[in-house]
Amino acid sequence: MSGDAPLSAAEKTLSVLEALADHSRIADIADASGLPKPTVHRILQTLVRRGFARADGRGGYLGGPRILSLAGRFLQRLDVAEHVRPTLRDLQERTGWTVHFALLSGDEAVYVAKVEGARPYHLASRVGMSLRLHCTSIGKAILASLPDDEVRALARRTGLPARTRRTITDERALLAELAAVRGRGYAEDHEENEAGVRAVGAAVVDHTGEVVGGLSAASLVDLAEAPADLPQLVVRAAAQVSRALGAD
């Protein structure tokens, strides 16, 4: 960066955040932001503490979960995700279940849209909430898109903590589950993330073909029969959202 006036602390931080979107190595972030490496390192450490960045385990940095968490809150207020809402609403109307759309953020995903189900109850999920990948239908659909080696590395970074007594906490069992997800084209959550809640999810890709998130339909176990074609409806909706994001 160049200019007559020195950059403020806020401008330096924003420059590092912008560079972090395209680069992970400190040297590359320094080049892109025009800031000295010590300054970049100091700013990154602050961003890590606040959840806006995280170390990738290889000496570099990635965006942190708070970036999408904040984005989710703005999406809720500004309704930037309006272009996918017709698909989410259609899925909700066809199933009566609560529909979620989440985007991948580092080793987690973050809900960016939610359409409440037809029943007079509300699930605890909310826009801006982060979710674990190993115990949710959206998360498992995302993980199924990755090679097993990457899944193992993620599992060792984050652990596989039990959310309920049904959560898969064994690495080999998780890999077997993901193989089944790949085979059938969708993922299931049988009270693995929240007791009493089940869900079916499918991955969402962007214009590059990369998996960027997922979509799910969820319901309380005791209050709703699953439509016979629920998995097909979820997969179809995920494909429609993918096309809305530019996928072929």
UniProtKB/TrEMBL annotation:
Xref: InterPro entries: GAF-like_dom_sf, HTH_MetabolicPath_Reg, Tscrpt_reg_IclR_C, Tscrpt_reg_IclR_N, WH-like_DNA-bd_sf, WH_DNA-bd_sf
Organism: Saccharothrix texasensis
One BP annotation, GO: negative regulation of DNA-templated transcription
Domain of life, per lineage: Bacteria
UniProt keyword Transcription, yes or no: yes
Protein's name according to its UniProt entry: IclR family transcriptional regulator
SUPFAM superfamilies linked to this entry: GAF domain-like, Winged helix' DNA-binding domain
GO MF, any single term: DNA binding
Domain HTH iclR-type stretches: 7-65
PROSITE patterns: HTH_ICLR, ICLR_ED
Keyword field: DNA-binding, Transcription, Transcription regulation
Gene3D superfamilies assigned: 3.30.450.40, Winged helix-like DNA-binding domain superfamily/Winged helix DNA-binding domain
Domain IclR-ED, first and last residues per copy: 66-247
Matches recorded under Pfam families: HTH_IclR, IclR_C
